[in-house]
Amino acid sequence: MAGIDRVVGYERDARGFLLSDKLLPxxxxxxxxxxxxVKYYMGIASYLGAGxxxxxxxxxVNDLERRDGGRNTCPRRVGSLDRKTRRTRQRTDGIxxxxxxxxxxxxxxxxxxxxxxRSIDRELAQRC
Length: 128
Fold this sequence. Notes:
By secondary structure, the protein is of the alpha+beta class. The protein has helices at about 35-45, 65-70, 110-125, and strands spanning about 10, 20-25, 25-30, 30, 75-80, 90.
């Protein structure tokens, strides 16, 4: 209806009738297998002729962004009262959010979060 000649996508979620080029999602025993979103989109790019298969995610920043961001990359020491000794303990806290909305395909495996956490810990220990 919009006059678009070619619409490429995965035939799933009842959208197949909208597509001119229908890609089949990976299935196991009739159920769609959750796929990391980067692989999902790389499948479309590959179908359209893209040759690169680099799955690394990169964040590109300029010098000002790098400088401003650097102010927030050292952990903050947090004091808490030890109830037994009545002394203040110093610790470094961090937060990770492993959840995602609208499907498991966007969720990382727990071991990936552990690997990233260890990597961040090592990098901050060197930097701060």
